[in-house]
Amino acid sequence: MIEQLQRTIAMSEEKPGFVSLACIEPFRVFFPLALIMGVLGVCLWPLYYGGCLSYYPMLTHARVMVECFVGGFALGFLTTALPKMLGVSALKGAEFCLLLLSYLAMCVVHLCGFLQLGDALFSLTLVCLLGVMLPRFIARKSSPAPGFVLALLGLGCGALGAGWSSFLTTDGGLQVNTFFLRLLYQGFILLPILGIGSFMFPMILGKKDKYAGLTGAAEKRMWSIRAIEALAVGILLITSYWIESLGETKVMSWSRAFICFIYITKESGWIGKLGELRAKGVMAFSIRAGITCLLLGMLLSPVFPMQRIGLEHSLYIGGFGLITMIVATRVIFGHTGQGSKFQLWGKMLTISAGLLLFTLATRISADFLPAVRVSHHVYAAACWVVVCIIWGVAILPSIRKIPPVVRPKPTVKKKSVLDMDFRK
User: Fold this and answer.
1) Are residues 305 and 286 part of one domain?
2) Quick check: is 93 in a domain?
3) Using one digit for the tens of pLDDT, what is the confidence trace for 360-410?
4) Do 72 and 37 touch, CB atoms closer than 8 A?
């Protein structure tokens, strides 16, 4: 938490070590690790086509990108933001080490190709996260943003989907297995993005909080209404995955797109005028582009069943990937005292966002152009790696920065007439 970190700095003459910073703000460790896993996850394809892998890496690639890449960013964000929102203490050293070791073990196991064990460790990691946060939620001094109901449902989707894939995958039929895989691959990411987005997107887009003026009973009533709305959206989306597993792919995918469009538009007001797109900088532009890709992926993937996997990368790369990158950038800037960069067209970040969209186009075209499918897979992987390198070089050095401490100026007591020395 920024306030806790600043108090720590103010009470000490020396700057706190990086370990202390990481316990208070775990994103400083989880974000770089997640980025590394994102690079390794896509490098599986060039290694396979180059004859360096003896197995087809589709399942391993999917697990690494969902559980290790997105999962790492989710761990870093939630362990940093939730204690602040709840008004409670940051993670203790033992809690931070537990989550970190569990995450690292899961990453290593997945890269070695042991999918079931990796799924079990991922489910365990999410359960540990919930266990760490539950006592803090009980002792909370304030409530989190109502959209975090969706984040909680998303964690549940991830834990259930990975748990099923790890232990019970042979006990269910095709429909049941498909349902739990959808919970893992999409529900785990989509629901938290909607929930966190209802809180973060207006900040990134430079929108005013339309509920900021509410106080007292009106504020509590509005919080309850929004929390119930978020819960209803989450239940509808989870239900759509179950119905889709029964064969209603097109209708359910379009229904999800409609539900997400309504909820995101209501909570964030992401649809703006052309002037707003130019005025708010690359982060705001990228959020709008990410939301558009997310919705297009849901709308188009069932229309072309032969190219469905390729088109779903509009959801994964352009939606989940781009939004994750921008939210992580906002978190890093916000927690390191770099608020002046929020609404700028930073060169490196702009290049990263543009190249990521090019990566998306290259990956989708691979499924529509069978003659160059392999080469486009390799090109898309190479572009993703370049995006990660550029973003990492531009943004990650800031994780060692600490927000400047604003020390109050000492008040100077004005002398009264009685304090004056009349001999001078």
Assistant:
1) yes
2) yes
3) 999 999 999 989 999 999 999 999 999 999 999 999 999 988 876 555 555
4) yes
Residues 162 and 177 in one domain: yes
pLDDT confidence band for 11 (50 / 70 / 90): very low
173 within domain boundaries? yes
How far is the C-alpha of 197 from the C-alpha of 266, rounded, in Å?
A: 11
Q: Do both 13 and 32 map to the same domain?
A: yes
Range of the domain at 117: 1-144
- 311 located within any domain: yes
